[in-house]
């Protein structure tokens, strides 16, 4: 396995872990630290605004890691349009790495 493939697996693993916990941290920040209630309109608006900013942050991380992904569906399309080895690497290594870490936080 080449260095770039190992780098992608490590990036996928780290970003998947971060993605799972980012929503939890956003909720903790809005509800616990800022003190908004679970059904407070201002708290919900703030929570969703931070979630949108979070999506842009993860889009930036994809660029920084040169292809790391946090969602298995986004890399599946690239695997299907690529060659057989890329498809087997994605289905056999990248997606299982993301699903295993994603399943921990659920």
From TrEMBL:
Which key words tag this protein in UniProt?
A: Membrane, Transmembrane, Transmembrane helix
Alphabetized InterPro entries for the sequence? SIP2-1-like
Report the superkingdom from the record.
Answer: Eukaryota
Residues passing through the membrane, by range: 12-33, 45-62
What is the recorded name of this protein? Aquaporin SIP2-1
State the organism of origin. Answer: Datura stramonium (Jimsonweed)
């Amino acid at each position: 396995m080449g260095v770039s493939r190992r780098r992608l697996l490590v990036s996928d693993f780290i970003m998947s872990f971060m993605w799972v916990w980012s929503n939890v941290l956003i909720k903790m920040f809005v509800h616990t630290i800022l003190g908004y209630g679970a059904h407070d309109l201002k708290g919900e608006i703030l929570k969703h605004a931070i979630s949108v900013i979070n999506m842009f942050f993860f889009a930036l991380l994809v660029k920084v890691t040169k292809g790391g992904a946090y969602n298995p569906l986004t890399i599946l399309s690239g695997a299907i349009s690529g060659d057989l080895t890329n498809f087997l690497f994605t289905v056999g290594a990248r997606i299982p790495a993301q699903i295993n870490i994603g399943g921990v936080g659920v």
